[in-house]
Fold this protein.
Amino acid sequence: MRSSLLLDAGGGGRTQTLILTGLLVLGLVALQPVEAARKKAAHCPDRVDINSADLATLRCLPGIGEKRAQAILDYRERHGAFTGPAALAAVVGVKLAAKVRPQVRVGPP
């Protein structure tokens, strides 16, 4: 990923453009252990049943924060139980559903 940042160099009012490459990637790598530690402290199960999980348990899934967890609960309330892990894509998108699939299970409604 590449991000641009404009800074006032202070010399003659010139603005220099700095290209920051990899900064976001480094930030994400640094956050992974923190997220894993948070989930471990929250007593997250190895696999989350998306048909019975509450908001806190849904947040145990990688990439699922409070807003997405609430969206899953809202979808489940409006449409009923999920029929399989792939059905989660209707709420979180195909890529994220594929990412969390190994940690998802679908119990009876």
